[in-house]
Design goal:
The complex is a heterodimer of chains A (273) and B (275). Helix content of chain A is 79%, strand content 0%. With 273 residues, chain A is mostly helical. The radius of gyration of chain A is 18 Å and the shape is globular. In chain A, helix 2 (11-36) packs parallel to helix 7, helix 2 (11-36) packs across helix 10 and helix 4 packs antiparallel against helix 5 (93-114). Chain A has one domain (2-264): ABC transporter involved in vitamin B12 uptake, BtuC (Orthogonal Bundle), CATH 1.10.3470.10. Chain B is α/β, with parallel strands linked by helices and 275 residues long. Chain B has a single domain (2-104, 176-265), classed as P-loop containing nucleotide triphosphate hydrolases (Rossmann fold), CATH 3.40.50.300. Chain B is built from nine helices and twelve strands. Chain B has helices at 65-72, 114-123, 132-144, 160-172, 190-205, 218-224, 242-245, 248-257, 261-265; strands at residues 2-5, 15-18, 25-36, 39-50, 54-58, 80-85, 88-89, 97-100, 178-182, 210-214, 227-232, 235-240. In chain B, the strands form three sheets. A six-stranded mixed sheet of chain B has the order 8-9-10-5-11-12, sandwiched between helices. In chain B, strands 4-3-6-7 form a four-stranded antiparallel sheet, covered by helices on one side. In chain B, helix 2 (114-123) packs across helix 3, helix 3 packs across helix 4 (160-172) and helix 4 (160-172) runs parallel beside helix 5. Chain B is globular, with a radius of gyration of 18 Å. The two termini of chain B are 34 Å apart. Classes of the chains: A mainly alpha (273), B alpha/beta (275). Chain A binds chain B through residues 36-37, 158-160, 162-163, 165-167, 169-170, 172-176, 217, 220-226, and chain B through 73-75, 94, 97, 99, 101, 105-107, 109-113, 116-117, 120-121, 123-128, 154.
Chain lengths: 273, 275
């Protein structure tokens, strides 16, 4: 047992466990609405958009550690842009997301190429696949602040957001400010995605949003239970994945996602018809 | 009842009977115009619905029925004209309106039970916990529409007919003065449709509740309508009693809506109706 829990004695693993659990829970919380609204692709799209923000930061000379503060506003703007196009109603969500994310990613590649050659070296692999084990105390504070702010906002708007997700017209008739909630959800998704990119990377972050919510949706009978279950799966799956990666000495981000994938597979197998 | 020559109001030739103007008006629409860039969707709509009257709103696809409903419900801004519900501007009287949407607008994969939908309508927000008095009211309203056993049923498992029963319950739960039904039997099987028409006929018999039913279904018009408003190209082209509009001259126009002279002439009133 001691050997199993040994990783928890190490400071970088403690930080990784906390960050993984918080980010796992946050992504799951957002994921419940994202999945239910059929916007699963948006996690992937915003992660690619975040790459554009990171590249912009690097061009401006910001260090990789502080890149979140450039990527955040950039990705939120992209999310709001997608929201605007969606609300105009003349383009499907996947098309809008595809265009915005591809353009942002291409912009990122272009900006990276424009950087001065004497600037600090950037490990693109770290950006793409995350580095949860390299989470610093400063990163942990960022994760904590985003976690508290997101949880509070969602808690205050939960019942309206759920109603608008079920049927925006009926919710609007009941006085729910549907447009404001739509924009808020997209902006929150962008914020959570940017923070999560640090842990599992651009390539895998959308699974962090989609898999816990999709798994919980197979089991839960009410939106409240689905949310609680998704959060539990996100938090526990992230912790177990991280421990497994430590003991097996394999990539942590990928192991977390594979663990979540295994839970999804089990739920699918035992799902009542 | 007052009779008018519709021609005078820009309506097609014919003699249509309008509601008694002395009756209290639940909905009153006056010269309603709705424009979108480059196009006029509603072009001077005017009619009223007195208390307790069941009106069928008919017209071909693209006639402006959905735009009209959205404008009345405050989901689309009018360019000009006025909409009054119970004498108040529509936006200030939406609690007086119960709405049964087309089935395709709601996310029926949403993890919820029928009771959640009904309580959401009562509260204006999604319930996480349901209080005893809310449960009692939900049971009462479901019993009213013959759907008591659906209370705890997951919405994803409701049949087409059951779904519309639950949506009717949620529309009626706040005791509205006007209920608006947007093609409620579209996509519902024959049995469910017949049962739902029975329910609508009950509403039609009520002297308290006014209703507007948007439908392409001749059976619904024949069974429930106390008055028919026929829209075409964004204008009211006829407004009168069903017997007046379901006469030979007008029947072909209404049946064309449902996409079939064949169905209209079959005398079965089971058109391959709503899309």
């Amino acid at each position: 047992m001691n050997a199993l829990l040994e990783p928890l004695q190490v400071a970088f693993m403690q930080r990784a466990m906390i960050a993984g659990a918080v980010v796992g829970g946050l992504c799951a919380m957002i994921g419940v609405f994202v999945v239910q609204r059929g916007l699963s692709f948006i996690g992937d799209g915003l992660a690619h958009a975040a790459f554009g923000g990171i590249a912009l930061g690097l061009l401006l000379g910001v260090s990789l550690e502080r890149m979140t503060w450039v990527a955040l506003p950039f990705t939120v703007m992209i999310a709001l842009g997608i929201g605007y196009v969606l609300r105009r109603g003349n383009m499907r969500g996947d098309v809008a997301t595809g265009v915005f994310s591809a353009v942002s990613f291409a912009l990122g590649v272009l900006l990276l190429g424009l950087r001065s050659t004497d600037g600090p070296q950037v490990n693109v692999e770290t950006v793409l696949f995350g580095s949860i084990l390299a989470i610093s105390p400063d990163d942990l504070i960022t994760v904590g602040v985003v976690g508290v702010a997101t949880t509070l906002l969602l808690a205050f708007t939960w019942t309206k957001l759920a109603y608008a997700t079920f049927d925006p017209e009926l919710a609007a008739l009941s006085g729910v400010k549907v447009a404001a909630l739509d924009y808020m959800l997209l902006a929150l998704t962008a914020v959570v995605i940017v923070v999560a990119v640090k842990t599992v990377g651009i390539a895998l972050v959308s699974s962090f949003v989609v898999i816990p919510a999709a798994t919980a949706k197979m089991v839960g009978r009410s939106i409240g239970r689905v949310a609680l279950l998704a959060i539990a799966i996100g938090v526990i799956g992230s912790s177990i994945g991280l421990m497994l990666s430590y003991h097996a000495d394999v990539a942590s981000g990928a192991t977390i996602i594979l663990t979540l994938g295994a839970v999804f597979g089990l739920a699918l197998l035992f799902k009542k018809k | 009842m007052s009779a008018v020559h519709a021609e005078a109001d820009g309506m097609p030739q014919g003699h249509f009977t309008l509601p008694d103007p002395s009756l209290p008006r639940v909905l009153e629409v006056e010269n309603l115009i709705v424009d979108v860039p480059g196009r006029r969707l509603l072009d001077g709509i005017s009619f009223w619905v007195p208390k307790g009257e069941f009106v069928c709103l008919c017209g071909p696809n693209g006639a402006g029925k959905s735009t009209f409903l959205k404008t009345v419900l405050g989901l689309m801004p009018p360019t000009s004209g006025s909409i009054r519900i119970m004498g108040k501007p529509a936006q200030k009287a939406l609690r007086e309106v119960g709405y049964v949407p087309q089935r395709k607008t709601s996310d029926m994969t949403f993890p919820a039970r029928s009771i959640d939908l009904i309580v959401a309508s009562m509260r204006g927000s999604w319930p996480l916990r349901i209080r005893e008095e809310e449960r009692a009211r939900a049971i009462e309203i479901l019993r009213h529409v013959g759907g008591e056993k659906l209370l705890e049923k997951e919405i994803a498992r409701l049949s087409g007919g059951e779904t519309q029963r639950v949506f009717l319950a949620r529309a009626l739960v706040n005791q509205p003065s006007l209920v608006i039904l947007d093609e409620p039997t579209a996509g519902v099987d024959v049995k469910g449709r017949a049962e739902f028409l029975d329910l609508l006929a009950e509403i039609s018999a009520s002297d308290e509740l006014a209703a507007i039913l948007v439908t392409h279904n001749l059976a619904a018009v024949a069974r429930c309508a106390e008055r028919v408003v026929y829209l075409d190209a964004g204008r009211v082209s006829a407004w009168g009693l069903p017997s007046e509009l379901l006469g030979q001259a007008s029947l072909s126009a209404i049946s064309a809506v449902a996409g079939g002279d064949h169905a209209a002439h079959s005398h079965q009133h089971h058109l391959p109706d709503e899309e």
